[in-house]
Amino acid sequence: MLKLFYSPNSCALASHIALQEAGADYETVRLDFRANEQRKPEYLAINPKGRVPALATDRGILTETPAILAYIAQSFPKARLAPLDDAFAFARLQAFNSYLCSTVHVAHAHRLRGYRWVDADDAAAIAAMQKKVPQSVGECFDLIEREMLAGPWVMGSAYAICDPYLFTLAQWLDGDGVDIARFPKVADHRQRMAERPAVRAAIAAELG
Amino acid sequence: MLKLFYSPNSCALASHIALQEAGADYETVRLDFRANEQRKPEYLAINPKGRVPALATDRGILTETPAILAYIAQSFPKARLAPLDDAFAFARLQAFNSYLCSTVHVAHAHRLRGYRWVDADDAAAIAAMQKKVPQSVGECFDLIEREMLAGPWVMGSAYAICDPYLFTLAQWLDGDGVDIARFPKVADHRQRMAERPAVRAAIAAELG
Q: What ranges in B48-194 are assigned the alpha helix state H?
């Protein structure tokens, strides 16, 4: 059975929702980041990066949200979570997810994870990073609103694996000091996502 | 015909090499970053992100290295650049490429693109980021060396689209102040990559 390692309010929610949407048989393992469980030897043996998500399969461990999302779409084709027979459409979807992981999530991470890129005790540099987050994250969502979110779903009429990923990162806007009302399409997307049974089930499980 | 927009010494080299390996019919368009050509309206109409690579196809534009690499592998299956019929193996490959784009490239970018995450005129914060790059990039390649590079190619015996991507980022180690000799498998990989006709052709074209 598939086993998803996650922590609440992390990007692992995207994979969690996708497993629900796919109708997959899976279980979850919660890591407590406040107790630094992701850095304990037991978990580093599963994912040496010390991050979530990780998805244990009968063939081994998978990491990285875009890879896990594509794996779920390919493993559960009946759920129609990606255009699997159209290399161009699949690449457009993957480009969206790659932008989320390499640019949007990274911009966000400078608020609470600045120690990755400057010395942890350099309080001025950490603060300089935090100060820029509303601008850098805001610019990312401005681009998503203007250029990338076709509507009603990210890729257009077909719901796909980029929708739970966008929803997950849009959940962080308030904390990042970005008013989602600036982005009507993103706000509408987030609201419609929040009403989906799979999304409600994944969130309830993570809060439970 | 496919058209790759690139700038020399950028991550676009990975896609350039993959097009060569695939035997694709393509042309290239060079952008001069010193002249800020990636920010000019003509290019922003192609890629609103103002970044490279971008791949123009007869169906539209693709961006983001992991997405372009998977598109090339799927569009030229005879070149066998990815395990297209094995969702788990494909996901392992994609996880590697996702780590390169979201963690390795990002760590590197803090040396010359720190203004993305702090105010451009905050010289102390910019310098604090640059100071950490040898450590953060070094830790990434330490993980690649220990856990991810199966050898002789990234995924093992089969050359794949993650090999040109790793090669491209390993080209930056010297500039990032990281001695590649710390990573014997990465160093061996870089040397064998540099001898491949497709790699030599792509580099010669970019320097020409």
A: 65-75, 87-99, 105-109, 123-143, 162-170, 184-194
